Amino acid sequence: MKEDKHKYIVREGWVSIGTNLLLFGVKYWAGVVSGSIALIADAWHTLTDSVSSVIVLIGGKLSNKPADEEHPFGHGRAEHIAAIIIGVLLALVAFDFVLSAVEKFNSGEGGHFGTIAIVVTILSILGKEALAQYAFWGYRKTGSSILKADAWHHRTDSLSSIIILVGILIGKYYWWIDSVLALIVAVMIGYASYEILSREIKSLLGERIDPELIRSIKIEVDGLLEREVFIHHFHLHQYGNHNELSCHIKLPANMPLNEAHAICTRIETRILEKFGLVTTIHPEPLEG
Fold this sequence. Notes:
By secondary structure, the chain is mostly helical. The protein has eight helices and three strands. Strands 1-2-3 form a three-stranded mixed sheet, covered by helices on one side. Strand 1 (232-239) and strand 2 (242-252) form a beta hairpin.
């Protein structure tokens, strides 16, 4: 599964880079020809997708590295770090185009849209949504957070292009529409940045273990042993593909050490088989 995950990340990264570079060139040219800052903003948004895809490739390569002496739990969290970099890039792009939109509005200058801008924008919508669907498909196959972040990056670009298209169609009636559209695109990019950063930072800081997972583990352990061990005090440490679980159980105070060890090993083995979690169990004396 780990090799498959790396393969999906690499493939999506290269497809994204090639498509985005092509779209950037066409959209930027159309923006210059039409004088539309909104279309130029949309082009730069597309270029940031290429940059983010390079980060996807680097993050995927790092996260695929095996555990070593300095990183005993592997390098899986490199995915989260790469996704955070993508989120920061989005935030910077959003801020820059807020400033550009305000500047153009104050100047009273509008865009001059034509057939070229319409055709290029429609191509962008179709191309970016296709990339988003491809990245989301890879995410569903692998559970990779970096693919999900990149998919949302593509999706926001597709949605921003839809807004640009609407503006092109009504732009001749309102001189200020180009500035407003650029501001809307910037807000959309900023929201995508917030979604990515809030999710990935939470993952790096550590999250509360899912109560449903705890319940499932307790049911599995109860069915495994002939005695009640009162499994509790769960902590889950996630490292991408490698996840560590620690918990406590209660055993009779006079139980021989080798018997207690055998019970802990049975539980650890079953949790690994059923839930894919490497578990460390701390036995406590059962009072009374």
